[in-house]
Amino acid sequence: MWGVSLKDFNDAPTVNVVMKFLRANDGNVKLAEEQLIKALQWRKQMDPLALVDSTSYDAAKFGGLGYLTTYPREGSGDLVVTWNLYGAVKNIDQTFGDMDEFVKWRVALMELAVRELKMDQATEVMDYNGEDPYRMIQVHDYLNVSFLRLNPNIRAATKKTIEVFSTAYPELLREKFFVNVPAIMGWMFAAIKLFVSANTTRKFHPISNGANLAREFPTLKDKFPKVYGGSGPDLEGSARTVSLEQEIVPEAEPAKVEAVAAAAA
User: Fold this and answer.
1) Is residue 262 one of the residues assigned to a domain?
2) Which CATH number belongs to the domain containing residue 149 in this structure?
3) 1 located within any domain
4) Is 88 part of any domain?
């Protein structure tokens, strides 16, 4: 689970994993156990590690849409951030049309980020009511995205992703920032609340101007990309992402090319 080989309660990484499931269920042991079993079953079926290590994704569909950055902080550990740039979608039907493919790509990006949390290297058990150092920041950028007539494929993919993440990745989110969002997006937050806990929705922060994001992290302003109010490099070329590949279109055989040319003449 998240890079941790589950052992017993003498093992700090194991206890921290179990604690996250307990926190996600307000300390209800039975519900935490049921969710942990569902998450393990899902991982066995989905094999998310293979989605990261052995799978490449179509650059035409997912290129430029998701990134991972890790920012070192003195005395506070690394800040892990995943970036989803939905305004960079080139073709909605291509990116969201195959819901299973979209979810697998999103899971692969999440697994990259989970590795950066280094839960398997824990030497101490977290305080149940204290600070949890094994959580990440998520940024969803909706620049140039229209919400007036949201494509049904987007709705379906979003709903499925929320369901998967709520079950399989509890208590891994510190805060989520929705940037470059219009006021009309209020309906989306209302819809999300139907699928996640109140504890999770309290972590959501809409920001209408993405250039104000760096203000939320004043000690890292020099690291955040310029477009988000920092002085750091752009995500493209500096941040990590999942393995992408360009679709290779086979060249036509000379005879076929000649035949096409003759038919067109």
Assistant:
1) no
2) 3.40.525.10
3) no
4) yes
**Mean pLDDT along residues 94-114:** 94
Tens of pLDDT, residue by residue over 145-164, are 765 456 788 888 888 999 99
Residue type, 177: F
- Give the total number of structural domains in the chain: 1
pLDDT digits (tens, 9 = 90+) for 40-89: 999 999 999 999 999 999 999 999 999 999 999 877 788 999 999 988 88
Has residue 257 been placed in a domain?
Answer: no
* pLDDT tens for each residue of 192-207: 656 555 666 667 788 8
Name the residue range of residue 83's domain. Answer: 12-245
Distances (CA, A) of 119 to 12, 114, 160: 9, 8, 26
Instruction: Report strand pairing: 66-71 vs 57-58.
Output: unpaired
In which region does residue 35 sit, left (phi positive, over 0), alpha (psi from -120 to 50) or beta (all else)? alpha
